[in-house]
Amino acid sequence: MRGTFRLSSELQLEADAVIIGSGAGGASVADVLTASGLSVVMLEEGKHVPSSSASPVASEAFAAAWRSGGLTAAFGQPPIAYAEGRCVGGGTEINSAIAQRADNYLIDQWRKVYKIENFTPDELTQYYQRAVATVNASLTPGPVGRATDILRQGGDVLGWEVSELKRGQRGCKGANRCAFVCPSGAKQSMAVTLLPKAIDRGMRLFAQTRVAKIRLVNGRATEVIARSWDVAGQGRSIRVKAGMVFVCAGAIHTPAILRRSGLRERIGNTLRVHPTIKATALFDEPVDAHRSRLPLTAVTEFMPEQRIGGSVFTPALFGLSLAGDWINRGDLMQHWRFCGSYYGMIRPRGVGAVRPLPGINEPLVRFTLAPEDWIALGQILTRLGQVMFAAGARKVFPNIFGHEGWTSPDQVHEFWDNPLPKRQTNLMTVHLFSSCPPGEHRDVCAVDSYGRVRGVENLFVADGSLIPEAPGVNPQMTIMALAFRVAEAALSHSVKERAQSAATDRR
């Protein structure tokens, strides 16, 4: 990416603002600030992975763009595997680019519960529209493949609502490598959209630069202290002094950075995710899911509490999914062209926590499912089995270790009234949020209604940490909308501060 900088010596910088993280939140903040003429420094822990060098090999792609190569998990019973992007563009480089806004009912509920000012569906519409326009959220024209048709067919048979999904795209080639960094640049990630614009306006972006902490003096953030690595792996220190600091490192690392900086009140105590359970469906006719995009329909009958969708499918990813129970599932590999991978996700009532650990890069993440979450997971797994059989599946294998699979729709009710086996159930998520909820309810909110960290005049959070609770949909549009809103409010606040300072100086 033109304008991306790497450090070759120790460096001290000054700017109007420093942004930590280059994903959906950080890039949106950068767009607002640079459009207003501010000097901006952005610090990104991961590498820049250009489309031209994006590897089609799963192991190489994961190592380049995913945090810890995709091997991260929140501790609990059971642990929940989660995925985060760790590259320029953050999670937008490895996600499916599905564009949805949070349900209006949920937005209203959050406003009331958390006492968030100026937070209604109407007031957020302008920011959602900006996010949608940024990524060109649109339906995918032309044939989208059998993997998509399976969800549509099964939903129609059952009389359930099935919705087509818009994605952030321009001329998608259907390479089916969304999770590997798009090889054509058609996916409208932050590295394709907002970051180049911000760099053209003068933003300085430092990749492979990990923030250690933010220095706080007398209720202000005065300096961001980080370390950068060069091509040879040699570390250099970097310090950035700025009038405003925006922490946009995601729902895991934003609270970790704030806590390492000495801020702990209500920070990192309310992590939420979308607990997700997968199933493999075997059909009599070839699905050939690897030849088309991920399924671009979803069963939305039970939203926002529950949703059924489809996953990216390649032979390598399918083999990886079977590896955890190879003794019972390994034979499916020879039938991979006849298989599809689908999931059910829920809005949980349980919460998690994030805590940094001394001397260790990755924080400790915990998540505890509430009893009602287990009921909901049993329900959504049942419904997932129903829709697969309604679409003609021969056999359905829920992602439960040692489970022999279902061979008829009569069997899928196994967990409707009975709890899932906790130790054998494999759960995952690609959606994380809510670790720094906003609002004026001071007993539960880490930041104010506009993302400003309490007690610090010029420190803001602008990423998935701000989404008050699980939205029940892919979160990118909501992250961008809230980040645009935070950046505009911070600019307004900064102007007022300067005006007050100037008035004081004239006295």
UniProtKB/TrEMBL annotation:
Keyword Ribosomal protein on this protein? no
Q: Does the keyword Oxidoreductase apply?
A: yes
Report a single Gene Ontology molecular function: flavin adenine dinucleotide binding
PROSITE patterns from the UniProt entry: GMC_OXRED_1
Fetch the InterPro entries from UniProt: FAD/NAD-bd_sf, GMC_OxRdtase, GMC_OxRdtase_N, GMC_OxRtase_C
Which residues of this UniProt protein bind FAD? 211
Q: Which residues form the Glucose-methanol-choline oxidoreductase N-terminal domain?
A: 85-108
Q: Which Pfam families match?
A: GMC_oxred_C, GMC_oxred_N
Q: Which cofactors does this protein require?
A: FAD
Keyword annotations from UniProtKB, A to Z: FAD, Flavoprotein, Oxidoreductase
The EC designation for this entry is 1.1.-.-
Which sequence ranges form a coiled-coil region, renumbered to this chain? none
Q: Which family does it belong to?
A: Belongs to the GMC oxidoreductase family.
Q: What is this protein called?
A: Uncharacterized GMC-type oxidoreductase y4nJ
Q: What is the source species?
A: Rhizobium mesoamericanum STM3625
